[in-house]
Amino acid sequence: MTGQAEERRTLNLNMGPQHPATHGVLRVELELEGESVVKATPHIGYLHTGIEKTGESKLYYKVIPMTDRMDYLAPMSNNLGYCLAVEKLLGIQVPEKVKYARVCLTELTRLKSHLVWVGTHPFDLGAMSMGLYAFRERESIIDVYEAVAGQRMMSTYFRIGGLAEDLPGNFDKVVKKAISDIRQGLIDYNRLLTDNKIFRNRTIGVAKISAEDAINCGLTGPSLRACGVNYDVRKANPYTGYENFDFEIPLGQNGDVYDRYLVRMEEMRQSLRIVEQALDGMPEGPYRAHVPGVVLPPKEDVLSKMESLIFHFKIITEGFRPPRGAVYQAIESPKGELGFFISSDGTGKPHRMRVRPPSFVNLSALPKLIEGALVADVVAAIGSIDIVLGEVDR
Amino acid sequence: MVDTGGVMEDKVREFLENNFADAVIRTEIFRNQLSVYIRKEYLFDICQALLHDEALGFKFLSDICSLDWLGQSEEAEGRFEVIYNLFSLKYRYRFFIRVKLAGENPEIDSLTPLWNTADWLEREVYDLMGITFSGHPDLRKIVTPDDLEGHPLRKDFPLTYETPQFSHNKTEPPEVII
Questions:
Q1: Chain B interface mutation, best of A351, A354, A391, highest count of B Cβ atoms under 10 Å
Q2: Is residue A367 reached through a cis peptide bond, with omega within 30 degrees of 0 on the bond before it?
Q3: Domain range holding B120?
């Protein structure tokens, strides 16, 4: 016995950027004492593409394809956020049919994003088969994307003031198939995971955060609602007609990984309800607003009327000029509150296009979630906050 | 409890009027959203008071964003602008605190003692716009590579496009698109 305290020794471990459980190129620098994490420092930026900077050099409508590539698991949510922000800036209203189609498709997008999560998150924890099942059901939503936009992943289907083109004739059919596939899938996942002893042991009480801390860390989306905080932009500040739909916001109690799982699973069921309502209530009418000089005129008119041809030509080449000012529009993306802040200086290009990325802010809470936990729980924590690195880095 | 403007807007104005009458330069409403321009010395105190005021409930710092007004008429008041996006979870109400900063060595107080959210958001503004946040515990670059010089979101940072070099254009400078 020397009487001296034993020297405290820590080990530095780099997790990522190529670690499969970091869901992209995220590097977390972990300082370990034995098996437990003393300090965690996330390093990001590997996917930085300068979308905000590039946005300032493009006409308003040319920014839409770039938004797809931020959260590439939920392209339509990003399109919607951007289009709504520009519509707010311009002060234009869209037809009812557009609202219903947008709600229907963004809820399918939420399902698509959550399905990837329900596939990969249990996969990280050892439930290998979940990945295959969830991606099988996701395929039916990709078919809907293909039917409406012709593209399976980067749809770019929403436009400022409407949709790229009318909904296809088989829209009902493909959406109904997706609904029934996913409904069956959810029953299977539930049976596989919810009462699974291994899954419960790996998730209950892991990466816990209190409601107060979650708000202070800026968590949004299912991660915040798992702590019992009732904040969902769809209910809090309804947009694109969400006030006309009947759905509930699932809440958790403990704010741990298991509650985040339960909240997302219930959200998927609620999304299915919304999709069904949107499909049943889909009104007839135009698929674009009538705003000459801002929204493209119908193609038939372009081919037969000179004014429409001129407007079409001018919108494509010069764009439109919104008034000076700045707006912020938030939507509930699958990951949380996705906001677009657009500042206009009266020219055809945005003066500043700021994205408030939910993944970025949620990821900044990661050290709080995992400090003091075990190395194996880091994987569970990263999976449970559901980040997409394309959106974190932009 | 959903507020569509009006009532909460008046409450925020009243709160600032009563407690920080000197701090507010002007207020502005655009598309139903309230922006309050304040003097930069008061930022921390105002945010602290708003955070701890239970009646208003601004517990949530949604976003921090920055603007560069280089070459615009707004530049007269200060080239840079930092915009704090505050949200009241209780009343579902959002408003913006906007602070103008000078073009030379822009600096402002950090809000990290109040909100954890401010940590990464301020680092991002620092990295991309070059605004220093005094009091931030760990002000490092966050998204751009370590060896990149300059701040990409500034208007004088070019969105460079380099043309392939051949013998006929070897001496020409790279094409610059802003």
A1: A354
A2: no
A3: 7-134
